[in-house]
Amino acid sequence: MTEAGKPLGLPAFCLRQPCLGTLARWSDVTFILGLSAFYHDAAATLLRDGEIVFAASEERFSRLKHDARFPTQAIQAALDSFGITPSDLDYVGFYEKPLLKFDRLLETYLAHAPRGYRSFAKAMPEWLVKKLHLPRIIRSQLPGYQKRILFCEHHQSHAASAFFPSPFDEAAILVMDGVGEWASTSWGIGRKNEVELKQRVNFPHSIGLLYSAMTAFCGFKVNSGEYKLMGLAPFGTPRYEMDFWKHLVHQHRDGSFRLNTDFFTYPFRLEMTGKRLERLVGHRRRDPNEAIRQVDLDIAATTQAVTEKLILGVAAHVHQCTQQSHLCIAGGVGLNCVANGRLLREGPFDDIWIQPAAGDAGGSLGVATLIHHQLLNQERSTQAVDRLHGCLLGPAIGTPDDLQALRRMGAVGEQHDDSIALAQETATLLAKGQIVGVARGSMEFGPRALGNRSILADPRDPMMQTKLNQQIKRRESFRPFAPVVTQERAADYFDMPENLSSPYMLNTFFIRAEHRTPSSQSNEPCTILDQIQDRRSCLPAITHVDHSARVQTVNATQNRFLHATLEAFEQITGFPVLINTSFNRRGEPIVCTAADAYDCFLASNIDVLILGTTLYHQERQPAHLRATAVKETSSAFED
Q: 179, 213, 243, 361: most buried by Cβ count inside 10 Å?
């Protein structure tokens, strides 16, 4: 690595307000609120006496995907969950240091002047009006709060979010994202109730920005289209890999790396890449409205291959320096489940724990836990799985008032008091080819649906992937779907260690050889759709073109209803596996409330909705409600 970091003790915090009384108000309960906002994926996390009791992204409440605005509604939901007000909070923390980020922006713009003027002119008004005045804004949004507002560095919040909730007493920590204030990749060590960052790679050299630049080159939107690039990669060939290593990126023996910024324009322009990259690959950047080209498939494959090798190189250096057997990961790059799977299989660490809300939303979790453990020097205890309660940290759904409001609208549902009987009926419907939306219990924190805000379907149907993508989700046909499987049977279907827990869909594993089927494709070139419809296993709807799958395991403790549904589905079909995809449509956040779920159910034409313990059939809903929902969603979706 290239630069040494600083240990995170009290001086690493920016204490923007004078001390009011003692360091902490030692009453019966201590509440700490962590915040992320103003860049992308704003969120709020609440700790009660150090326990993580609430975490949610603002987008779930505002219904604006990747909402970066101050998380007013998420904060209110957190406070309401315990009947408290801002005056009851003991500490409020923000996940990065705006002044340090502003310093990086100014230095970068000056270094590239006058080329960066357009980008500079667009960014400055928001900085001068909002981002440089965060203490004032935070106080205005938390009336009655009179205590400290604390700021930590971006990668320190990521590191804390990775280690403190993890199941490890001590571990190496690896943070990889686009960029924080200056750092883009950092590593360090977590021990007991402390995290210490040792070294870092700084902007503009960044694995995350390399991936985002290629995402933009292939015509997808930065900060949301990276999943698409990862999904496209198996369709292509990494034929540009030698060009990438020769011209774009170099990795040193110590794992650090440098990008050739002659090929990237993100430091000084609103676009990520320019003409020089187009000349290197021999093709212009794809317009989002154009069809996906072979070059896009090959760039996706190349970018994924280079990213995986960069991560493996960094991880090898971190292991050598720390001699730790466990690794914790956070930062947006940590959501690259394909790279995670390869690191788990080939990397030097015995076990890896990835923080499931690894992007900026997870920064709110990081700063809150950092305040509790490191600033207040509170002891940390570990749990066998982790301290995130299955990441089911958002508000609950299906209260009597919610259901009564739907009934007043005219919604027709069947109440089921026995949840196991409901699980058995759900499995029966799924086995008949029905698509079921599930909205039960507490909402998940992070970008992945884990069973409480999910759409479930039968993975045996070879046309189910196309049906879900085109008719339900209304998104690109190449997007794969994840399987959820009972933990006790997972190793029977996927090449993964016996009894390995994968509750957060953060790793890919390959379908076991005995479940694969010979390809029906000839050696002749074929379209993406042809490859998608090629039946590659006995579970074709969750088997990607390279026989991989982003696996979620579940046991009865983690989610009793989902586990019971899987067991019942196995009794009917012989397979303890279902499709699990997020309960939303293209361009929308995952559903939060009962009203969100019912609206999405009607508009997307899902067959059945399970809302709490009530079951709704699509064909039994009033015609005027169905017609209204379809009309409201007939306009084009945006990513």
A: 361
